Amino acid sequence: MLNTRQKKVLFCVVNEYINTRKPVSSSRVLESTDISYSSATIRNDLKKLEYLGYVRSIHTSSGKIPTDKGYRFYIDSVSEIIENLSVSKKVDSFSDYPQLNVNILINHAALLLARTLPVVSVITKPRTDTLKIKAIRLHKTSDDYITVVLITEIGMVDTQTVLERMSDETLTKIEGLLNASLIGRSVDDIKEGIKNPDVLRKWKGTDVESVFDILKSVIEESSAETYVMRGLENLISDDLIEQKSLRRLVLTLESPKNFYKFLESFEKVQQPMVKVGNEHSYEEMSDFSSFIAPYKVENEIIGFVISIGAKAIDYQKAISMTNYVANRLTEMLTFLSRLGKIQK
Q1: Residue 291, class by beta-carbon neighbours within 10 Å (0-12 exposed, 13-18 middle, 19+ buried)?
Q2: How many Cα atoms sit within 13 Å of 5 on the Cβ side?
Q3: What is the pLDDT of residue 210?
Q4: If both were cysteines, with which of 12, 45, 258, 295 could 329 make a disulfide (CB 3.0 to 4.6 Å apart)?
Q5: Order of strands, edge to edge, in the sheet holding 133-140?
Q6: What is this structure's pTM?
Q7: With b meaning 16 or more CB within 10 Å and e meaning fewer, what string describes 184-213?
Q8: Residue range 4-66, CATH number
């Protein structure tokens, strides 16, 4: 159990190390705090903090640097401060969202994070499973090819072109039938409906039957998560991050298979959270801190905002900015969703 003074000392050690990237001595603690005790008392506090696993020494005679446990204490402390603060109004913001394309919006948000924080920012694009269909369009791109366009309530578009010969009249008829049946239903609902043998039997022998395989393909494709990544150069230029650690992280982030395995550790995230070092279940993240916040449409989580940086990072700013971006995405996409419902 730490007393009030020892908590102050620990907070100071982590804060100073984040700002200077240098081991923190007892004299430096006294210089940067209002603690009115002797240097010997502070040295004893540092020894206790090291014994309890909050700090460690690089060399016997050097100052202290935080461990993952020390960073966790600091994160929990600054989180209490953040609750009473808002992100500066001076920060670069999004454009007026009624005119924004969702993909442009996601890219802009990722760039904003990477330019504001020394992190690599990763934003997963909205999962369309729970989004409702606003329209389905069938376009004859040539005599032998048809393009199917699936438009969701927030304006996201999925397309697929397939080999299918069909007259203009039939195409118009099928498009009308599909829209009458599917508008207002979620992708999840449609996936279940397509699996239903009674539904397939209903259209057996009609022109619509030929479109079911196309629709299945588009639906499956729309459920595949993709993501935007920006700011890798921020970590490459950070001298505190070892090249070996950075290579492992890059291999994780640039491989969709590895990235989605990494995402599994955040699968049950309902609220913003921070993980530091070995708190990650994914070994490649042991030398980093990650900040994750879900974004939503109508209280349904459809994606995540993730910032990944060195452990010695401005936690207050990183937490605030990651949450800010997630909240703005929630606000904008909910607006677009409601706008889509009004325009139906």
Answers
A1: buried
A2: 16
A3: 62
A4: 295
A5: 133-140, 145-152, 157-163
A6: 0.76
A7: eebbeebbebeeeeeeeeebeeeebebbee
A8: 1.10.10.10
Provide mean pLDDT across the span 56-74: 89
CATH fit for domain 133-222, picks 3.30.390.60, 1.20.1540.10, 3.40.50.720, 3.30.70.260: 3.30.390.60
Enter the tokens of residue 40: 């010997």
Compute the Cα dihedral for 116, 281, 224, 195 and give only its sign. Answer: negative
pLDDT tens profile 267-280: 677 889 999 999 98
pLDDT tens digits for range 219-251 = 665 555 578 999 999 999 888 888 888 988 888
Asked whether 12 and 32 are in contact (CB, 8 A), the reply is yes
CA distance 308 to 234: 10
> Is domain 81-127+225-343 classified as CATH 3.30.450.40?
yes
Residue that wins the pLDDT comparison between 315 and 134: 315
Q: Where are the domains of the chain?
A: 4-66, 81-127+225-343, 133-222
- Between 207 and 8, where is the model more confident? 8
**Cα torsion 41, 46, 47, 49: sign:** positive
DSSP assigned state of 164: -
Q: How far apart are CA 341 and CA 338, in angstroms?
A: 5
Name the residue among 118, 134, 42 with its Cα closest to residue 317. Answer: 118
* 195-to-130, 189, 212 alpha-carbon distances in Å: 17, 10, 10
Secondary structure (DSSP) of 66-86: E-HHHHHHHHHHHHHHHTT--
Whose structure tokens read 């578009």? 157
- Is the Cβ–Cβ distance between 204 and 146 less than 8 Å? no
Residue with tokens 């100052």: 63
101-110, 294-303, 305-314, range with greatest mean pLDDT: 305-314
